[in-house]
Amino acid sequence: MLMSALSLENSLESLYIYGFPNTGIPVNSCFNFLESLWINMSCDSLKAISLDMFPKLSTLGLRKCRNLQMILQGHTHHHLKSLKIIVCPQFESFPSNGLSAPSLESLRIEKLEKLTSLPGGMHDELPCLTRMDILECPQLEMFYNGRISSSVKLMGLSYRSKLFASLRGALGPNPTLDKLSVYNVDAESFPDEGLLPPSLTSLSINFCPNLNRLDYKGLWHLSSLKELLLDSCPSLQCLPEDGLPKSISKLNIWYCPMLKLSCQEGDDRAKIAHIEDIGYMTMMLKLKSSGIHSMKDTLSAGGMVMILFFF
C-alpha cells in the first residue's frame, strides 16, 4: 500500500507515515520535491536514512523507528531547518564527518539510549542553530568540544543528564543563551548557586516531583530574567524567603497545587505583588511532548501533502 501511494512522489512536498512497521522507504525513488517528512512508529527495516535522498527537505522527524541506527550524509544539505529524533532506541550516530546543514535552526533529540556524542563540527557546520533540545539521552556526557555554540538561544535539557552538569562550562564566560527549559529535576532544591547563566530572560522548570524548594542563591543573579514557568512540581510548597528576582514580569504556575495555594492565599502573595502577569493552571488534559505536535509540522501551506495511517 505504501509503495503504491508513493507513486505520486514526483510532486509530493509533505509526507507523514504513521503505523506502517513492515514497510520501508523506496531507496530508488525520487524525492526531489519533498520538504517535510515524518516517520512515526513505522519502517522497522530502516537502519539508516540518508539526507542525500531528500535534497529539498526542510523538516525531518523520526519517532519510534525501532531499528534506526544512524543518519548518513555525503553532501552538504542546504535546506534542512528542523531535525527531530525521538524515542529511537538503536540510534547511535550522526554522519561521521559531522552534520553539515548550514540552514538548520532547530535540533531535538530525545530518549536515544545509545547515542554517545552530538554531531561533530557543530560550531562550523550548524551556524544557524538557535534551538537545541536534548532530553533523556543518558550516554551523552559532554557538548561538542565541551562548548555550546553562541548561536543557540533556546535550550531544553534533562537535569539528570550528564550534560547538565557541564552546562556552566559549556556556555563559556560570556553566555548568550536566552531561554532555558529544565526537565526532571530529581533534587529537593534547585538551582544551585552559579549554575544558570545570567543571560537568561526566560526559565522553565518542568516535571520535578521531588522539588520542594527554589534556591534564591541560584536565582538572584538572573537580573535579565523576565519570565518564569513552574510546571508539574507537586511538592513545591513556597517561593524563596527572599522572593523572586525583581526583573520578573511574567510568572506561570502549572500543576503545582501547594505553591498555587501559597501564592493565592498564603505568605507568597506579597512576594509576587510586583509581577504584572501571573497565570495558574490546574485542570487540563496534557499531551505528552514527544512528537505530539508533529502533525502540524507536516501540514505545510500549499503543495501536495500525503498522510498515511494504519490502525
UniProtKB/TrEMBL annotation:
<dbReference type="GO" id="GO:0006952">
    <property type="term" value="P:defense response"/>
</dbReference>
<keyword id="KW-0611">Plant defense</keyword>
<protein>
    <recommendedName>
        <fullName>Leucine-rich repeat domain, L domain-containing protein</fullName>
    </recommendedName>
</protein>
<dbReference type="InterPro" id="IPR032675">
    <property type="entry name" value="LRR_dom_sf"/>
</dbReference>
